[in-house]
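Researcher: Good morning. I'm working through a list of sequences from a screen, and I'd like to move beyond sequence-only analysis. For each chain I'm collecting a predicted structure so we can compare shapes side by side. This is the next one on the list. No need for commentary yet; just the structure.
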Amino acid sequence: SYGTPFHTDGLHEWIKTTTPITLTVTDQGACAVDDVTTYYMNTLVDASYCEEPETCVPLHDYEDPGWIKYTGPFFKEEESCHMIEYWSIDALGNRETIKAQCVSVDDTPPETTKSFGEPNCSPERCDSEYWTVNSSTPFTLTATDNKAGVNETYYRYCSGIDNCSDDWNIYSSTFHVTGLEDGEFRLEYYSKDNLGNDEEIKYEIDYLDNTPPVTTITFPPNNTWQSTDFSVHITDDDHCLDTCYYRVHNGTDWTGWMERECNSDVTIDVDGCDPCLKQNITVEAYAKDCLGQI
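Model: Good morning. Structure tokens for this chain:
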């Protein structure tokens, strides 16, 4: 029998190097003898013996060297598929048929990877150390464990780049980062397998940006008279600008939206816009960031 930690899916069995293995013997028959000796042998075998339990049959005979007299619980010190063969003999020389049991020893934690969907912006695009996301960006955690299997995956996040201290969330499906102010944030995550092997906590620093750009026309002042071509200075403030636009109303019609260089001047052609000489001119401008926020 196995102590803890131990895991089975009903067909396959897994233990750790710290799991005690115990052999318990009872003598059968009308005149059972209490003086019984038990022997065992451990053999590292191919993983197929553990994956296909029907192949786990004894490999050794009574006379083969290597049998160890059982004196108490023992442990397996190496990760592998182990075949444990064992048998007992009483004081009258009655020998039990050799039995075999195959078990996988697993001290390796799961491996968790993180991914996220759109919208997102690369560090190169934003001239930043970190990826830029917002609260509509989906985050996905994928854990793999080829042995005892993944039990749970955990995650948490917090503002800043220092270690988080909030309680862990159990991961069940794609999540979004909400409830934080814009700026750098830290996402931490790890997984645990069915034997309690904990993965080392992983983390990533990203930049949360839920704020659209702020565009301001700084010159000329509102409600001023212009009789010649003039420049309109437009500023755009954002963590990661993408494209900037403006349009002009000549008192009668709007132009279409025209792309402009962010944080720069646009020139209004008064001479080429005859109605403009006698009509109010309205200039509108806006910017879009790399996440598509306007």
